[in-house]
Structure formats: structure tokens, C-alpha cells
Amino acid sequence: MSATSESGGEFSPQDAARAAENLVGLWRSGGTLGQAMDITADECEALYAFGHALYEQGKYSDAFKAFAQVTIYDHMEPRYQAAAGAAAQMLGRYEDALRHHLAVTVMKLDDPVPVFHCAECLLALGKLPEAAETLELVAGMCKAEAQAGLKSRAEALLQALKVKMPK
After folding, report:
1. Distances (CA, A) of 102 to 11, 134, 166
2. Which of 26, 94, 162, 167 is buried deepest, with most CB atoms within 10 A?
């Protein structure tokens, strides 16, 4: 969106209000900022792939910037949110990571993986009771055989945490 109105003049407060109303309407109908900016799914995927390559190279700060940008364009894609959370976590930005992992948790209610990452962040933030409760939730969510490893990790962390927590 430019600083001038469609007629070529200055961008008026009425233009701004109309643009804001259109954007809110788009979001309420399940749209994204990327759609409003004519950013394609392929362009988002390219930015995600770029961030993933940076992450794999250990360039977590740059990866976080790419992932944060792609989540701005499409806040409803859980892979983008999870990637931003992972990069933030690697940077020690646990509050930011927790927000992204929570978003994925809400999007994928039956997936214990983002819940486990929330527990990791809570541990790092020193929120031990919350982390313990979250790890119990993870262990309870792990029903499939493919989730046995995650369940074991959650239970092991929970046992170690219970030893550390005051009674």
C-alpha cells in the first residue's frame, strides 16, 4: 500500500480507515496479510525454505527474521509458526518461542510436539510448575506408537523436574 490514494493524491485518514476496515474484513474471513499484499503461496514457501537453510547453517538470528517475516505474511500456517518458534528458542528468546509454539498448539490441538516445545520454553523461563503441568499434558497426548519417544522424553523431564521442584 502506498502513501498516496488511488486517485494519486495524498493518503487521507478516510483512505487509511477504509484500508484498515478491508484488512480486518480479510482477517475475519480467514485471509492473511500476504493475500492482501498479493504475496503468493510459492513466495511464502521460498521465504520459508530460505529461513530453513539459514537455520540448518546455524544462522538462527537470520533464520528467525525470515521465519518472522513469513509468519507475518501467513500467520495461519503452522510450519511457519513452528519454525519461528524453533529459531527463537535457539536464540534463547523463550518468550517469543513460547508464543509461536502456543500458536501451533492451537492450530494442531492433537499434536503433542508443539506442546513439548512449550514445556521446554517454560523450563528455560524457570516456570517449573507450568512446565511440569505441560509435560504431563504431553505424556497424556502421546497415544500413537510413533510418539513413544516423545512420551519418554516428556516423562523423563517430568521426573527430573519433580526432583527439582519444592514440595
Report:
1. 37, 12, 27
2. 94
